[in-house]
Amino acid sequence: EEKRRQYDQFGDNMFGGQNFSDFARSRRTSEDLDDILSSIFGRGGFSQRFSQNSQGFSGFNFSNFAPENLDITAILNVSVLDTLLGNKKQVSINNETFSLKIPIGVEEGEKIRVRNKGKTGRTGRGDLLLQIHIEEDEMYRREKDDIIQIFDLPLKTALFGGKIEIATWHKTLTLTIPPNTKAMQKFRIKDKGIKNRKTSHVGDLYLQARLILPKVETLSNELKALLEKEL
Questions:
Q1: What pTM value is reported for the model?
Q2: Which residue ranges does the record assign to the Chaperone DnaJ C-terminal domain (predicted)?
Q3: Residue 8 class from Cβ within 10 Å (0-12 exposed, 13-18 middle, 19+ buried)?
């Protein structure tokens, strides 16, 4: 211990002015280097002393400098009408509820970023990423920028033609139905679809007929007999 303290204090001067290599050569040849180092630094020699002094680096925790991912991703279910009209939706996450306006024309799978609604960490607060899922609807569906709307068409009007009023997503229309209209036949209303957010292209509205059959028990016997004969 005393020799180690002296070397720490005086360095090579403790060898009488010689550097360590000259001093080692001046010792008797039967004494190897490890014995010399052991006499100075103790059992284990210089390598053990260096190993002990370098442990601080291996024990250092670099994870504190790793970037934090504070963003949260969630699914937001919306209706076709929400994407047409830009309706507001109530969103609840992390015990927090807020109102969010749905962008008109937003598409399936698109992500909406809501700032400062993510997790809180040492570097601040992350964002909330809401992935849009457009739910199936009995009356409406989207095909890119086009809207398909189902409307009920009485059998009589389908057979003989006529006019029918239809409440669409933007206003009520009067549609002229030709005779012999078939089930699921489409009628195109130009430029009444959805406006594409990226290209500004406006799609079309397609009104698709769903035939409504009369209840057989409401028909007269004469009409039922005629239908059975003619159909």
A1: 0.64
A2: 74-214
A3: exposed
